[in-house]
Every structure is written in C-alpha cells, then in structure tokens.
Specification:
Layout lengths: L1 E2 L2 E3 L8 H13 L4 E2 L2 E3 H4 L18 H10 L3 E6 L7 H8 L9 E7 L7 H13 L3 E9 L2 H4 L10 H26 L4
Parallel strand pairs: 1-3, 2-4, 2-5, 5-6, 6-7
Length: 190
C-alpha cells in the first residue's frame, strides 16, 4: 500500500484552497492501493522555524507527528494557493522544519489562484525549493484558476473538466510514487 498524504499549504482565513485539497483527497481515497490523509497546516499551527526537526530535542507541538507522517510517506501532494506570485510563508516554514523526510520522494503540486493563471508562479517557485530539499517534484501539476468560482464549499468542482484533470494528475502522482518506491526497494540508499 502506497502512502501519499496531502499537505494543505495555507492557514489564511476564508481560504479556498482547502476545498481543492479536500476534493483531491476524496479522489485519492478512491484509488486502490493508496492510503492518504490530509495534513492541514491550520491544524498544526507551527511557530516560526528555529531549527530543523532532526536537530531538536524540544520540537514544537505536533511537529514530530508531522515529520513522522512525511517520513513514512512514499510520496505526497502539496495543495497551495498563490499569494503575491509566490507560495504562502506558512508552507515554506512547515517545509523548512524537515529535510531527510523528503529525500527521493515524489511530490505532486496543486496550485490555486483567485485570478486566471492557476498559481503558475507559485508552482514555478515551489519546484526548485523541493528539489533543493531532495524531493522529486513530478512534471505534471493540478492548477485551478478563479478558485472562488471553480470550487464549491462542499469541495466539488463547478466545472466537470476538473474531474479529468484530477484523474490525470493523480495517475501521474501514483505512477511516480510506485516507480520510485520500486526502485528504492531494489537498492535502498546506504
């Protein structure tokens, strides 16, 4: 069974990206052979990072739990809004707490925006950060433009095109996760 949790990368009031995260979570839960859960940064509420988890003997509340879940994951998905052409500081803060937990893990990135470009600038900035941390951002992405109109509060899309796009995105996330997990099983890193 593959473990592919989703990180909800915003804590903003009235955030719309959580609807997209819940939608992708529901779609991923329907996939056989995949275990998933939503890791909502709003629920974790980490303070500003002072030192990485693996270098602390006094981690903030729930940081060890968060780190353990990502360490045990075969891959993960980040769902984040684009704020001012970038990604939220709360997401960068949470990512910076960890490092070995990301090594050689595929990451699917879903971005949302209030405007018409679906968070493409956020996506472009987040990929090199993940690469620098040792993760493997997959080529495909799931982008949602005009999120206020595109997704309802019950986490369903207003446009059925998102069902096909989500299926293709999740196919790619699962493919990369299976491929990398299989390679790791053959030759684990020493």
């Amino acid at each position: 069974m593959l473990s592919i949790p989703l990180i909800a990368g915003s804590t903003r009031r009235d955030r719309q990206s959580i609807n997209v995260a819940r939608y992708l979570l529901a779609k991923l839960q329907q996939r056989p052979g995949v275990a998933t859960e939503l890791l909502d940064l709003l629920e974790y509420n980490f303070p500003i990072m002072e030192e990485r988890l693996h270098r602390r003997d006094d981690p903030p509340p729930r940081l060890q739990e968060f780190g353990d879940k990502l360490a045990a994951a075969d891959g993960f998905i980040i769902v984040t809004p684009e704020y001012n052409n970038g990604y939220p500081g709360v997401l960068k803060n949470a990512l910076d707490y960890l490092l070995p937990e990301y090594e050689r893990k595929p990451v699917g990135i879903a971005t949302v925006s209030a405007g018409g470009f679906g968070g493409v600038n956020c996506l472009a900035q987040l990929r090199p950060v993940l690469l620098a941390m040792g993760a493997v951002p997959i080529p495909g992405s799931f982008r949602v433009s005009h999120v206020h109109d595109s997704f309802r509060a019950d986490a369903t899309p207003a446009d059925p095109k998102y069902d096909q796009e989500a299926a293709e995105f999740l196919d790619e996330v699962v493919w990369f996760t299976e491929a990398i997990a299989a390679r790791k099983a053959l030759a684990p890193k020493a």
